[in-house]
Design goal:
Blueprint: H1 16-24, H2 28-40, H3 47-59, H4 63-71, H5 78-90, H6 94-106, H7 113-126, H8 129-142, H9 148-160, H10 164-172, H11 179-191, H12 195-207, H13 214-227, H14 230-243, H15 249-261, H16 265-274, H17 280-292, H18 296-308, H19 315-328, H20 331-345, H21 351-363, H22 367-377, H23 385-397, H24 401-414, H25 419-431, H26 435-447, E1 456-461, E2 464-469, H27 478-494, H28 510-525, E3 531-533, E4 536-538
Antiparallel strand pairs: 1-2, 3-4
Helix pairs in contact: 1-2, 2-3, 3-4, 3-5, 5-6, 5-7, 6-7, 7-8, 7-9, 8-9, 9-10, 9-11, 10-11, 11-12, 11-13, 12-13, 13-14, 13-15, 15-16, 15-17, 16-17, 17-18, 17-19, 18-19, 19-20, 19-21, 20-21, 21-22, 21-23, 22-23, 23-24, 23-25, 24-25, 25-26
Length: about 550
């Protein structure tokens, strides 16, 4: 390998070689030609030229070529190292960024805030917790722990690594908190399932007079989607309009997701229609929103529009549209769309697509077709628990107990530690009147110490989100809530409605069964009015953690 013994160059930005590099840009073949020219003319002793060359090569995506160039340089300086670490981290070569950092340490070249900011970002991309903590110690030793850019990078790293306590400690010690640091902290809460905390942090940020940017708004809209916080989401939308933010793909898609998750599909479509740029992500979000809210025909129509306007669907788009067909009973449309995956778009079906097909056929009562699909069209590797679970759910829905038991045996053999499978099988046996089997399943769950996680739901009242689960009495107004339900139960029974015990989860205790009978059967059978306690309004349908759109 030829080594370049470089010496400080006479500043070549105006040299012909440097101008050739600029003209070549991030394109590998032109860069190779310029590289050859640099060697022939003897300019390879210029470290500035080599630094520019190697960063352009990395930007072009040829990391192997960049490594080759780096190994040929005998005495790289801090500028070269920092440029390499930054550009490799920025363009998705995070592991190489860490390796270049290691070479920098071995070369005895001191790090700067520039170095630490880039290499910590690489650690965040890789979720390299151990390496990131080691670099944090280097930051402390080097005295850069008070640098705002390094601190912001550390907040991002720890937040992405689910180390929220450490992220918050670093954030709280920051004297100059950049918007990047605020966004990282809010995003850390939201992505780790603490959407309430994300919203509270957003309010705290606003109370200090800090203006959110578009990234902040995308994050907080995602939190609103998780919480079902429609009023806050609408406030964010109003803020976007008031401040004149461009509704780009990221912001528009976030608004669509928020409105759809909160049930306002009309408003989501308004946002969609106002977007100047539509990519596959935006189309998919709107199709998914239609499907999840029961508008299957609208989802299919939008899918066809997407294709007609020249945007090819991806695998996620097909999951969204097939799911929409399944929930709306559009079997012929679903079959046609599934067939087009391969014939029109050369996409292979994945596990999630198979789940949608089995679910679609099963919901439509085509159990034999669904089971035949599993046995003939899905390989053993793709016959995942989720496919069998969809089949088992269809057997329960249409009370095909023999087929359900057969599917359940396969399912328990594949995933014996999932309590949901036992509950589903128990319900099937109960509906078939096989109480001996119900008891056997119950005892098996007890023996294996398996317990199904209790479902929960949320409701927004006065811009505050409340969480409820079945049998929950922790809410401060639970006495009034249950009193209202008791009164409602009396009126329902007077109207002649009788719950069906067979639809209740049979692993429940007697008292829990009574609650489940009330809520699963009666509340799903009627359109219930809202009730008021003081200044708060509650919709009983959403108080106990069950979704009735299945």
């Amino acid at each position: 390998m030829k080594h370049y013994n470089v010496a400080p160059p006479p500043s070549p930005p105006h040299s012909s070689a440097y101008q050739s590099l600029l003209r070549a840009g991030p394109r590998v073949k032109p860069l190779q030609q310029v590289h050859a020219h640099i060697i022939v003319t003897g300019s390879h002793r210029s470290l500035t030229l080599l630094t520019k060359l190697i960063t352009l090569v990395c930007t072009a995506g040829s990391i192997a070529y960049a490594r080759h160039l780096f190994r040929a340089i005998s005495n790289p300086d801090s500028f070269l190292f920092n440029s390499l670490i930054k550009v490799s981290s920025k363009f998705g070569f995070s592991l190489d960024s860490l390796l270049f950092y290691r070479h920098m340490l071995l070369a005895g070249i001191p790090q700067s805030s520039y170095t630490f900011t880039s290499v910590i970002k690489a650690c965040a991309s890789l979720s390299a917790c151990k390496f990131g903590r080691a670099i944090h110690s280097h930051v402390l030793v080097s005295g850069y722990d008070s640098d705002p850019f390094v601190q912001a990078a550390l907040v991002t790293f720890y937040a992405k690594s689910s180390e929220l306590i450490i992220a918050r400690n670093v954030f709280d010690r920051m004297r100059n908190r950049t918007i990047v640091a605020w966004n990282s902290m809010i995003s850390g809460y939201e992505q780790n399932g603490f959407s309430n905390e994300a919203v509270e942090f957003f309010y705290h940020m606003q109370s200090l007079g800090i203006e959110p940017d578009s990234a902040t708004l995308v994050i907080i809209l995602s939190a609103c989607s998780q919480l079902g916080a429609l009023s806050l989401g609408c406030s964010v939308h109003d803020y976007i309009i008031k401040k004149g933010f461009e509704i780009n793909v990221a912001l528009g898609t976030s608004l669509i997701n928020m409105y759809c998750r909160c049930g306002n599909v009309i408003k989501a479509r308004e946002v969609f229609d106002q977007m100047l740029e539509l990519n596959v992500i935006a189309w998919t979000a709107m199709i998914c929103g239609y499907g999840s809210n029961g508008y299957g025909l609208e989802a299919v129509d939008l899918f066809n529009q997407m294709i007609n306007k020249g945007t090819p669907p991806n695998n996620i788009t097909f999951v969204a549209i097939l799911s929409a067909c399944a929930h709306s009973g559009l079997v012929s449309e679903g079959r046609r769309i599934f067939s087009s995956m391969h014939t029109d778009f050369s996409l292979g079906a994945r596990v999630e697509h198979h789940v949608c097909m089995v679910d679609m056929l099963g919901r439509a009562g085509l159990l034999n077709d669904a089971y035949q699909y599993i046995k003939e069209l899905i390989s053993d590797e793709e016959r995942s628990p989720s496919v069998l679970t969809a089949m088992l759910g269809a057997c329960k829905m249409h009370k095909n107990f023999d087929l359900g038991a057969e599917v359940a045996e396969h399912l328990l053999a594949v995933e014996p530690e999932n309590p949901g499978h036992y509950v589903l099988l128990s319900n099937i046996y109960a509906l078939a009147g096989r109480m001996d089997r119900v008891e056997m399943i119950r005892n098996l769950m007890i023996k294996r110490k398996l317990k199904k996680q209790v479902g929960y739901s949320t409701i927004e009242i006065d811009q505050k989100t409340h969480l409820f689960s079945m049998g929950d009495k922790s809410h401060k107004e639970s006495r009034q809530i249950y009193g209202y339900l008791d009164d409602l139960m009396c009126r329902i029974r007077e109207a002649g409605y009788v719950p069906v015990p067979g639809l209740v989860m049979h692993q429940l205790e007697e008292e829990e069964t009574e609650y489940a009978l009330r809520l699963l059967e009666d509340l799903s059978a009627f359109h219930l009015p809202s009730m008021s306690f003081g200044s708060s309004w509650y919709s009983p349908l959403f108080l106990y953690g069950f979704s009735f759109l299945t």
